[in-house]
Write a structure and sequence with these properties.
Elements: H1 4-12, H2 14-74, E1 81-82, E2 115-118, H3 125-133, E3 137-141, H4 147-158, E4 163-167, E5 175-179, E6 182-185, H5 192-201
Parallel strand pairs: 2-4, 3-4
Antiparallel strand pairs: 1-6, 3-5, 5-6
Helix pairs in contact: 1-2, 2-5
């Protein structure tokens, strides 16, 4: 076995110096690898923690959304008017409805297309009522409605299947929402009752013929 003295002498030779430098480099490399492993493990732990926290947040947000939708569906719409026992006969003549816009009753055998359809001119009420029978929400407005509200409603309807929109010059209020047997006047497109009405009545429980087509009917 080499003595400590011989070892020190060996380090002073060129070969010993190279060996010492090699050992030092290996030591530094091992230290670097340990730091990398520690950093990798720490990052992995942080990612997992973030995913867990993010997943929890998303689940909580989804739960909150579900609860809000359920509440919207089960809570009454403030100011809503309701009609029961509406006729559903198919007729080929004009119908004198007791409410304007109509929310049900006898109607034309052809429905108005209501697959996110926005009409800029008045449409036959008898065809629109058939759309309500299929579970559509009908947005109507008169000349007193603000352009900003008309644009906002157009955007909402154009992205919502089972809904349609059209002007009705002789309706009482500027902005009205109708479904089969249901109707409400709203103040603006941002009125919170708008979202509730859509959530509750687009293919809602009031629909006499749920799942019936909203396309393939009258388109103008």
């Amino acid at each position: 076995m080499a003595s400590a003295k011989n070892k020190d002498q060996n380090q002073n030779t060129p070969a010993g110096a190279r060996r010492a430098k090699l050992d030092e480099a290996r030591r530094k490399e091992r230290a670097r690898e340990r730091r990398v492993r520690i950093a990798t493990i720490s990052a992995s732990v942080a990612v997992v923690a973030a995913l867990v926290a993010g997943g929890g947040y998303l689940m909580a947000a989804a739960d909150d959304k579900d609860k809000a939708e359920e509440q919207a569906k089960t809570s009454p719409v403030t100011g809503e008017r309701t009609w029961d026992k509406l006729k559903q006969n198919h007729v080929g003549t004009k119908v004198d409805y007791p409410m304007n816009p109509p929310v049900g009753g006898d109607h034309n055998q052809v429905w108005m297309n209501c697959d996110a359809d926005v009409y800029t001119a008045e449409i036959p009420k008898e065809n629109a009522v058939h759309s309500l029978e299929h579970g559509a929400v009908w947005v109507t407005y008169n000349e007193k409605a603000k352009d900003t509200d008309i644009k906002a409603f157009s955007k909402r309807v154009s992205s919502t299947p089972y809904s349609l929109m059209s002007p009705i010059a002789d309706q009482k209020d500027p902005l009205m929402l109708s479904a089969w047997g249901k109707q409400v006047t709203v103040k603006s497109a941002t009125d919170p009752r708008v979202a509730q009405f859509f959530t509750k009545y687009v293919q809602g429980p009031q629909t006499p013929e749920p799942g019936a087509a909203c396309s393939g009917g009258l388109d103008k």
